Amino acid sequence: MDRLLIKTATAGGSIAHRRFVKFSADGTIVQASAATDLIVGVSDCPNGAVTGERADYILLGIAEIDIGGTVARGAFVTSDANGKAVAAAPASGANAVTAGQMRVSAVGGDIAEIFVHTGMMQGA
Questions:
Q1: Distance (Å, rounded) from C-alpha 20 to C-alpha 38?
Q2: Which residue, among 81, 82, 84, 80, has the nearest Cα to 114 in the 3D structure?
Q3: Which pLDDT tens digit goes with each residue over 37-96?
Q4: Which of 29, 38, 74, 101 sits CB 3.0–4.6 Å from 9 for a disulfide?
Q5: E strands, 1-124, where?
Q6: Which residue ranges make up each domain of the chain?
Q7: Distance, C-alpha 24 to centroid of its chain
Q8: Which 3 state secondary structure label does DSSP give 33?
C-alpha cells in the first residue's frame, strides 16, 4: 500500500495535474513557477483545477510529476517556470528549493516518479 500525505486546498489559479505547487495564501495553492518558490507538494488533480476549485496535492510520499528537462535518478529536483520538475542546480551562493528526489532518470516530456520531500540547496 502506498503511504502518502495528501491535503486539499483551494486553487488560487489554474493548476495542471502532476505539477509542483506552492501556497499563495492560507489554504490556497497555485502552480509553482521558479526554483526559489517555497514548493509544498505535487498537484494531484487529474482534470486540473481552476481558481476557486478544490485541489489535492501530495505533501510527502511517492508521486508522479511532469518532467521539464533531463534529470538523473537520485537527483534533487525543483520547479521550472511551468511547475515541471527540473534538476536543482543553483549558482554559487544562490539557493534553490528542492521539492523531491528522482526515483528514475527522465527527460523533458516524461512523467516520472519522485519522492516528494521539501528542502533547500545552496550552490557551491
A1: 10
A2: 84
A3: 999 999 999 999 999 999 999 999 999 999 999 999 999 999 999 999 999 999 999 999
A4: 29
A5: 5-11, 20-25, 28-31, 39-43, 54-66, 76-79, 85-87, 95-102, 111-122
A6: 5-59, 64-122
A7: 15
A8: coil
